[in-house]
Each structure stands twice: as C-alpha cells, then as structure tokens.
Amino acid sequence: MSAEQTTAKAVEEQDDRSVLRQIAESSGLVVALAVVASIVIGAILVVLASPEVEEALGYFFSRPADTFAAAWEAITGAYTAMFRGSVWNYNGDTFVQQFRPLTESLTMATPLIFAGLGLGIGFRAGLFNIGAQGQIIMGAMIGGWVGFAWDLPWGLHLIVAIIASVLGGALWGFIPGILKAKAGAHEVIVTIMLNYVAANLIAYALSTDAFQLEGSDNPKSPPIAETAQYPLILGDSFRLNLSFLLAIAAAFGVWWLMERSTWGFRFRAVGANARAARTAGMNVPLSIIGVMTIAGALSGFAGSSQILGTESSGLTAGVAGSFGFDAITVALLGRSRPLGTVMAAILFGGFKASGPALQVQAGLPVDIVLVIQSLIVLFIAAPPLVRFLFRLPAPSREKVVAA
Amino acid sequence: MKNTLRIGAVAASAAIALAACSAAPEETPSETATETAEAVDYKACMVSDSGGFDDASFNQAGYEGLQAVSSDLGIEIATAESEGESDFAPNINEMINQGCDLTITVGFLLSQATVDAALANPDSSFAIIDDLADNDFDGTTDAPNIKPITFDTDEAAFLAGYAAAAASQTGVIGTFGGIQIPSVTIFMDGLLAGVNYYNEQNGAAVTVLGWDGETGSFTGDFSDTTKGQSTAQGFIDQGADVILPVAGPVGLGAAAAAQAAGNVWIIGVDSDWTLTAPDYSDIILTSVMKNMGPAVYDVVSGSVDAEFDVTPYLGTLENEGVGISDIADGVLDDAVIAEIEEIQNGIIGGSISVTP
Questions:
Q1: Which of A166, A177, A162 is nearest to A131 (CA)?
Q2: Global pTM?
Q3: For a 10 Å CB count at each end of chain A, is N or C smaller?
Q4: Ranges for all domains in chain B classified under CATH 3.40.50.2300
Q5: pLDDT per residue over A332-348, tens digit each?
C-alpha cells in the first residue's frame, strides 16, 4: 500500500470515527429534546390511529369541536395509560397494584442496563458492537442449561449459573474482538452474523433432547431450578429481583473501569484516536479484545437476568426478546455513560412496561411504543435535525473528547 | 416539481374537506342509555403470542372468533399482543387488572404464564389454545380454572392424506412444517397415516417426503415465505405433486412454487385456503381446517351466562372442530370421494385409527 493510500484510508477512518463519536456524545439537551419531539410525533400518530377521531373528522365542518375533543381524549388516554402502566397506577385498589408498574419498569430495565453498559464501553472505544442480542442469547442458553440441568446447593447454584451466563456472553464478545484485532474483520459485520449464529444455535439446541422437557416435543426447556433463580427483592407480589441491584452495581463498576482505571484510559484513548494510542505505546489489539469481551460479559449478565429471573419458567428461542437491539438505543441515548445508560434503560423499561396498559386500557396497537422508541433513535442519530426543529444554535466548536 | 407538489397538496386538502362535510350525528342520549343496558356485563380478553393477531394463523383465527362473539352478544373484549416472551406475564396480569372474566391465551409458549396467573387468581377464568396447560405432564390441567382448547387435527389431515395419495400422479407427496412442535407435527402425522392407509387399501406405494413420523423438514419459523418456496421446490424436484405446508404464511411460498411448477397441488392448513388465499385457489386440492374461531366463539358464549366449564375442548371430526374443505372439482373420482366420506365415518366411529 502506498503512502498516499494509507493517508486516504486514515482520513476515511477518522471520519467514520468522528460520526460515531458525534452520535455517542450528543449533548444532554439534544437527547432530552429528541425524547420530547418523539413524544409529540407519537401523539400525532395516536390521534391518527384513533377510530373516534376518524369518526369525528367525518363531520369536521358541522361540529369541529368533536374532533378536537376526540383527539385530546385519545392523546391523554394514551399518555395516562403509559403513566399508569409504567410509573404509578393511581386506579389500583391496593398498594401492590399501585406500586407494581414502577417495579415492572425496573424489571424490564435490568437487561437493558447490563447490555447498554457493555455497548457503551464499546462505543467509547470506537467499536460499534451490534452483537448484544447474540451475547444475551448465548448467556441465557448456557446459564439456563446450568440452571435446569445441574443440581447444586442453594446459593452456589445461582453463582455458578450466573458465571456460566457471563462466560457465554463473554465468549460471544471475544470472537468478534479477536477477529477485529488479529484479522481486521469489521466488528459490525461479525457481530451481526454472530447474532444469527446464536439465534439458530438456540433454536437447534431446543430441538435436542438435552434441552427439552422430558415427555414434550415443544422447543422449551425445563424450568430453572429454584436454587438457581435470582431471589425476589420486594417479596412475591413483585417481579423485581436481585439482578436489578447487580445491574446498578455493574454501572458503578463500569464507571470505575472507564474513569478511574488504566484499562479504561486505554479504551478511551483507543476510541479517541487509535493511531495516537499506538504511538503512545498502548496495545491496541489487546484493548479491542478486552472491550469486546467485557461488553459480551455484561450482555451475558443481561441473559442471566432473563433466564434466571423473569423467564425462569424455561428457556425458549425468544428469551432475549429484542433487548439486544433496544440496548443499542439505550447506550446511545445514555451517551455511553453509566449513569446515562441506567437512566435511559429505565426510560425504555418504562416504555416496555407500559405496553400492556396501552393496548388494553387505551386500545392502542403496541407498535406505537416501538414507533416512539424508533423516533428517539432517529432524532439522536441526527443532532442537527433536533437543533433545526427547536431552532438551537449550532455548537460553536466540536466538543473536546477527554481521553 | 414544486408546482406538482402544490397541486397535489391542494387536491388532497380538497378531498379531506369534502370528506369532512357530512352532517354531525344527532345527540341521542336516550338511545345510548338503552344500548348500554342491553349489553351483557362480561369481558372476554385475549393475549397473543409473538405472532400477533395478523399472523394469518392461529392468533388471527382466535381473534376473529373473539370479535364475532363480541359483536353477537355485545360483550366487552380486550386484546393484547405480545412482542416476546417477556410480555406474556405482564399482558395476562394487565387483563386481570382490567377485570376480565375470561382470559384466552394463544399458544403453548404462554402455557406457564397462564398457569401461574390462573393459580394466583382463582376467581378468574382462563382458556388456552393449542395447549393442555399441563406443564408437569401428569395428564391433568395444572390449574383448576383453565380450559384447554386443543384439536385432533390428525383426523382431518388423515382424510387429506388419503385424498392426496389418490390425487397424486407421481406417487410422491411432500410436507414440511414451520417449527417442530406438536401442534404442527400432528398435521404431518395425520397426512402420513392417511397416505399409509391408502397404500394398504389400494396396494399402492405412495411415498411421503419431509416427515417420517420422527423427523422431517422444517423451515425454522412461521414468517419467511422464501424458505417455504425453496423447500417446496425441493420436493417438486424430487417428483412430489401434492404438498402440505404446515407453517402458516410460509405455506404461501410453497403455493407460489407449486403454481410456478404447474401440475402440483397444495393442501391448505388451518382455514379454507380457496377463501383465504384466493390467488392460489386453482391449485388448492383441499384444506385441513382447524376451526379455532368457532371454538373460541363457543367457549366464550358458553361461559357468558353459565358457570365456566373447564372440561377441555377437543376439536374433532365429530364435533366439526376439524375437517377438510371441499376437494377441488374433477380431481378425484366420485368413488374415491365416497371412500373418503366412509373413512370419515370410520374415524368418528373409531374403526379407523389415525395414528401412523
């Protein structure tokens, strides 16, 4: 390769990185406004989807007030249902019913916190890791197998099962890491492909006798032994379990790793400018492998919070839901910082938890929540669009990334 | 360019304005009051699995049954679609919070969540489609307030198998499933048994590709029609001229392959495909119908006024919970059609066994 080509490639790479960094480091105001904008657009969609509004529009010129009343009712109905479904059900008869939505939001947020933290580390190190879905599946599959097939005493069983989950996820992160570091394979392609591998691997595993319940041909494993389940932290009435506290602890751990440890400094330096980091004597390939493995391990934790927590009735092919992909949004929304990720995960957990209430109480298709989530991503990915919408001045200078 | 946009915008707003010109409905409070008085105080609810209520398969069939019973009897309904496994328990719980008298869940994936909810809410009633709610396999339903709704689809598939064997010119029949689960393989079992019965009765040697009673061809999901197309093409290349795809919408891919190949028949599943897939009506030999909508209708309407009856509902040829649709005209001799009717009576009477 000639010197010229190398320079051109380096420039291109630099561009690539700065776009990613711009997205990941968009300012807090832009993030907040993106949420506001998507809720407003969501309201418009709610109105359009409402049959009452459609009916009232039919005679708009005879009695326009009806249309606005119906539209207002549809919007308030949707957003109060969202609130009741995710924060506080003020219509509940008992305290348990009233308080339950908040715990559901936190329960749904738990896997997102874990996976989002892992992805955030990658984003800050300049690695666009799409592989959380596959890593969650591998973690859930291996941890779940330990959970239902092994027979260990209380306490030990849970710990062993968690470690198995974490190792499963870490393995699925290590593979793209080492391929990127040693062979230059692009992590986006490799992680996407490994998602497919994991999805088909679990489907295959569930068709074998080793993973199926005896006497059944359904692709579903036996339930996880009680000794390997996360204990519930608020009693039997709530699904919130110990993994939520572990997720918060993991957020502290990641903060310490990224802000206080030498390893974190290396990761950030590689993300800011891999060439400079190499010149400064840092081992870039090792950093890439480390970042991907840690990200995978955190996603493995997310898998454990599913299979050893909320989904402990048995492993199925859908154990990861869409958490792995939602976690990408969470990490971006949280600007790849631990605190931001936790907050974003709780916001998304709330969105997810409000799904049933939206469908049943407000009669809205669950897709509207997905649309709102997707709009948030769209706005965050395009900060200039948000600035344009809200007439914000462009930033006078690029934010300096402290490495 | 800008002008076209403008003209378009004017035209669109004119259309909206014209559409909005109709008269407002009269305020008729008295009428509304009587209507509410007439409505039955009963709420039936349904939770789908991740296929959603537009899956052209069992979620949709159950949903249509629920809507029919709601409009006929004036009962309230509520529905929730699940995006994934983690939605099952919250969705069912939301139904209970909303005061549903009867909650119907769709599919074996919801089995455990339904049992958990039923045990925790002994005063509510539950029903589950395509599952026995028997997760400890002791032969009984795990909670006293769940009514399982299942179907002996193999009885109808047996008839379709016999018809397929009679209709086949090449003596080769293909079948494939979406995922290897009992509610899918029961179709394939019935087909295989029906073909074998035809061979016994007529000294023929019709073979079945894609299912041997233990293992077979599965596309891996219920959504990717291209897999259905390529699997069916594989069977056609091996000489099959009748194909039974047991994979919901994936079967439409098989129908496309059959249409392209010519001289290949498709056997529809779940509903009468000459009605639900009219594009392919000329290549549908018959359909193995699993009448889930009517079953849901019966279960709901039966429990509105009476005590909830948890006796498992089992759709059979006898109670018309399963059956085959009319066989395409002119394919089979009248004698064979008479034989099929005889076999149907034999299955109902118990003289013919449908297990392969």
A1: A177
A2: 0.79
A3: N
A4: 41-151, 153-289+326-349
A5: 888 889 999 999 999 89
Contact A82, A42 (CB under 8 A): no
Length reported for chain B: 356
Half-sphere exposure of A183 (CA within 13 A, CB side): 9
Whether residue A360 and residue B84 make contact (CB cut-off 8 A), yes or no, is no
Interchain pair A356, B25: CB under 8 A: no
CA distance B311 to B127: 10
Q: Does domain B153-289+326-349 have CATH number 2.40.50.100?
A: no
* A contacts of B185 (beta carbons < 8 Å): 217
- State the residue for tokens 């249309």: A67
In chain A, what are the helix, strand and coil shares in percent, each to the nearest 5?
70, 0, 30
Angle, vertex CA B18, rays to CA B12 and CA B20, nearest 5: 105
| Among candidate residues B161, B137, B129, the one with its CA nearest the CA of residue B265 | B161
Tokens, residue B303: 């429990």
Q: Give me the residue from A62, A316, A356 closest to B91, CB to CB.
A: A356
Across the A/B interface, how many CB contacts are shorter than 8 Å?
Answer: 113
Beta sheet of B322-324, edge-to-edge order? B207-209, B172-177, B242-246, B265-270, B284-290, B322-324
Q: What are phi and psi of B147, to 5 degrees?
A: -110, 115
Here the tokens at position B330 are 């002119």
Domain range for A363 is: 21-86+354-393
Nearest to B156 by CA among B42, B293, B22, B320: B320
A273 residue type, one letter = N
| A269 and A166 housed in the same domain | yes
Spatial contact of B104 and B44, defined as CB atoms under 8 Å apart: yes
- Asked if residue A171 and residue A54 are part of one domain, the reply reads no
Residues of chain B in contact with residue A366, where contact means CB-CB under 8 angstroms, are 80-81, 83
Report the distance separating Cα A120 and Cα A46, nearest Å: 32
Rounded to an integer, what distance in angstroms lies between the CA atom of residue A27 and that of residue A335?
8
Q: Name the band, by pLDDT with cuts 50, 70 and 90, for residue A71.
A: confident
3-state secondary structure of B288: strand
Q: How far apart are CA A368 and CA A385, in angstroms?
A: 22
Instruction: Determine, yes or no, domain membership for A156.
Output: yes
* Chain A contact present for B214, CB below 8 A: no
Together in a domain, A322 and A361: no
Do the beta carbons of residue A310 and residue A107 sit within 8 Å? yes
Predicted confidence (pLDDT) at residue A203 exceeds the cutoff of 60 = yes
Q: Is residue A108 part of a domain?
A: no
Please check whether residue A180 is in contact with residue A292, taking contact to mean a CB–CB distance below 8 angstroms: yes
Q: Give the angle subtended at the CA of A137 by the CAs of A292 and A117, to the nearest 5°.
A: 40
**Could you tell me if residue A219 is inside a domain?**
yes
pLDDT tens sequence across B200-249: 999 889 999 999 888 889 988 887 889 999 999 999 999 999 999 998 88
Q: Within an 8 Å CB–CB cutoff, is residue B179 touching chain A?
A: yes
Same-domain check for residues A118 and A29: no
The CA–CA distances, whole Å, from B344 to A25, B152, B154, B157, B341 equal 69, 13, 12, 11, 5
How many angstroms separate the CA atoms of B231 and B229, rounded?
Answer: 6
B41-151 is a CATH 3.40.640.10 domain: no
Q: Are residues A313 and A339 in the same domain?
A: yes
- ipTM above 0.85 for this complex: no
User: Closest to A59 (Cβ–Cβ): which among B17, B24, B113?
Assistant: B24
Please tell me the total count of domains within chain A. Answer: 2
Asked whether residue A226 falls in the same domain as residue A332, the answer is yes
Contact B266, B228 (CB under 8 A): no
Task: Determine whether the interchain pair B90/A356 forms a contact, defined as Cβ–Cβ distance below 8 Å.
Answer: yes
Q: Which amino acid is at A182?
A: K
Examine the domain organization and report whether A359 and A337 are in the same domain.
no
A267 in the same domain as A386 = no
Give the angle B103-B40-B130 at the CA atoms, nearest 5°: 25
Q: What is the pLDDT of residues A156-173, one digit of tens each?
A: 999 999 999 999 999 999
